[in-house]
Design a protein that fits this description.
Glutaredoxin, alpha+beta, single chain, disordered N terminus, 2 helices, five-stranded mixed β-sheet
C-alpha cells in the first residue's frame, strides 16, 4: 500500500493524513496533532510524527492536524495547554505528548508503541 502525500492547507482548521484511507476502519491508531500555524516546531512535529508512524505503524494510523490559530476552540476538547501537542485518541487510554516529537524513543513510549526499557 502506498501512502499519498498531502500538503498543508492553512485555510482549514483540521485535516487528516491517512495511508489507510482506501480501507475504511483499517486505522488502528488515531492521532491528533495540535499546532499553532506553520511554525518551525509545528512543521518539525508533523514531519517527525509521520516518520515515526511510517516506521512503526505503517498503514495502521491516521493523523489529524488541528491548527489552533484557525480554530482555537478545538483546544478545549482535549484540554490543550501547549503546542505542538500530540494526542493519541485511539487505542485508549488517551495519551498526550508535548513538543516537536524529535525524540523517537520518548514518542514511542508516550504512545505505548514499545515498552520503556
Amino acid at each position: 500500500m502506498t501512502a499519498r502525500a498531502t500538503t498543508t492547507r492553512p485555510a482549514r482548521a483540521a485535516r487528516t493524513v491517512s495511508p489507510s484511507e482506501f480501507q475504511p476502519g483499517a486505522a488502528e491508531w488515531q492521532l491528533r496533532l495540535y499546532v499553532a500555524g506553520q511554525t518551525a516546531k509545528s512543521i518539525a512535529a508533523l514531519d517527525n510524527l509521520k516518520r515515526v508512524c511510517e516506521t512503526h505503524l505503517a498503514g495502521r494510523y491516521t493523523i489529524e492536524v488541528v491548527d489552533l490559530l484557525i480554530n482555537p476552540r478545538l483546544a478545549a476538547g482535549d484540554q490543550i495547554l501547549a503546542v505542538p501537542t500530540l494526542v493519541r485518541k485511539f487505542p485508549e487510554p488517551i495519551r498526550k505528548i508535548i513538543g516537536d516529537l524529535s525524540n523517537e524513543e520518548r514518542v514511542l513510549v508516550g504512545l505505548d508503541v514499545q515498552p520503556l526499557r
